Each structure stands twice: as C-alpha cells, then as structure tokens.
Amino acid sequence: MRGARAVASLLALPIGASVSAPAAADVGERQVLALIRALAYDRQLGERAGDDVLIGVVFGPGEADCAGEALAVLRGLDGVTIQERPIRSMSVSFTDAGALSDALSGGVDVLIVVGGLGEATAEVVRVAHRAGAVTAGFEPEMLTIGVPLVVSDERGELEVYVNLPASRAAGQSFSSKLLQVATVVRENP
To answer: Long-range contacts for 179-183 (Cβ within 8 Å, ≥24 apart)?
Structure first.
C-alpha cells in the first residue's frame, strides 16, 4: 500500500537531528512526528522562522486534552531541529479571532489545528495565514478550508496530504521528496 510505505519513507528522512519513532508509538505521536518531518521539506520555512521554529497547537473549548497530547510529543523533541532551527512549542486556546491574532503575534511559525474547532477552523486558518503562520492538521477535511499540510490516520495508516494551492497561498514550497510520498491536492477542494 502506498500510504504505509510513503509514510515509512517520510519517517526515515532526516530533519536535522536523530529522532526515531518508537515501535509502539500511539497514532497521535506518529502523526505529530510525521508532521514535523514533513515540515522539514518546506523550502520557505527558513525565511519565515527566526532562530527557532515556534509551533503553536490551537484547540477549541474543552479540547485541551487533545492539544496536550500533541504538545507532549513536541516537548519531547527538545534538541531536535528543523532546518538547523530548534523546535519550540506552545498551546493556543481559540476563543475568537482577535485573541488568536494576539497569540500569534508572539512569532508562531506553524499552527497545528487540533479538535474542537468545528466551523471556526476556517477562521483559524485565515487568521494564521494573515499573521504569517502556516497551518497543519490531522483531518483530511481540513484540506477543503485551506490547511496546506495534513497527516491523517483515518484508515489505520498514516497518510500525508499536501494542498498545493493552499501551500502556495501560505508561502510554502515543499520539496519534490515530500510531494513524491504525499497525496497531492492540485486544485482547491
């Protein structure tokens, strides 16, 4: 199957420091690790990021646990770099566009969208892109509202998706190595 082999290949690609996914990793951990590896293939990330790559995890009301799982994985990557920049992370609780805009003013480079946002997800994407942050997520449906990069586990296998029009609009340019292992959306869904 293409999905399993493609993600296995993606997980094997270097991101700047030695990190391996534990054999018994739960799906959330594997998704976050695959997402971090995929971000390493954004050729424009270095221009957006400063001395480090600040990754925000945004969640809706009552979904702090979901964000906590992603943040725990990110915090476990201390010392890991993406394009020679160390990773930092922070949680961002979404209440409204103004509060999100204020939170992003701290220099968030990548905003990972997790559960509990529903229809507000499109607003989160618009605010993030206006602030110069790119978005990523874990649900393929997010591709339809402009999330450029998604790592999904809907069918029991990790699958990487890249929405090319959304990634270009957000200022991302993914290398052909990533595009070869991803499912590429070439038109706005």
So the answer is: 180/6, 181/6, 181/7, 181/9, 181/10, 182/6, 182/38, 183/159
How far apart are alpha carbons 133 and 171 in whole angstroms?
9
For the whole model, what pTM was predicted? 0.83
The pLDDT > 90 percentage for the chain reads: 59
**Average pLDDT over the chain, rounded to whole?**
83
Return the bridge partners of 183, or none: 161
113: β partners: 58, 137
Three-class DSSP category at 93 = strand
pLDDT tens digits along 96-124? 999 999 989 889 999 999 877 888 999 99
Domain 2-185 listed as CATH 3.40.50.1100: no
Tokens of 80: 């890991």
Q: Say which DSSP state 133 is in.
A: -
Least Cα distance to 89 among 130, 141, 35 occurs for 35
Domain chopping of the chain, boundaries: 2-185
* Sequence-ordered list of residues with C-beta below 8 angstroms from that of 118, at least 6 positions apart, any chain: 60
